[in-house]
Amino acid sequence: MSSPVNSPYALRVRDLAHRPGEMREHSLDIEVPDAMGAGVIAVRAGAAMHLDLKLEGLHEGVLVSGHASAEATGECSRCLIDISEPVEVDFAELFAYDVSEDFDFFVRDDHVDCEPVVRDAVVLSLPFQPVCRPDCPGLDPVTGERLADLDEHPVHEVLDPRWAALTGFQGTESDDSSTTQSPEGDGRTA
Prior knowledge:
It contains two helices and eight strands. The protein has 190 residues and is mostly beta strands. A hairpin with a 6-residue loop joins strand 5 (61-75) and strand 6 (82-96). It is elongated.
């Protein structure tokens, strides 16, 4: 396990440790070392992220609450153009002193590493199917062209291949049954 001191998300809390009621605020601008998100949209490695953090000493540990803001980039899930959208998330987590306690995060080497907390908040806020705009029409299923770029949406008749053999019978049977001659042959229809 690597030391939290090497993480850009790590903060020293020696002055807050075991001092309930003590509070400190930090503002960090960092370059994201690893991408956050693996789907169609993510906060990419190297992107700028701003963190406003508040650290409070408690009996059990250090409460870290804050706000993260960054820019997520990716592709529209309907028309596949490049998009970017702002990510704004709030988070709060208790970093416990005692590792035997039933907590998820701990103070290590007088530091708290906020990276997993920030990562979880950012990834959960990303849209599952991002779109360039709410009414994005997507791509033409036949030509693959982006429908928003076309003046008129072409209408393509899609014929189910299972019924294609019946296209030759269309209209021929109904014409024969409507003009049946009477047995006398006097031109009357039956």
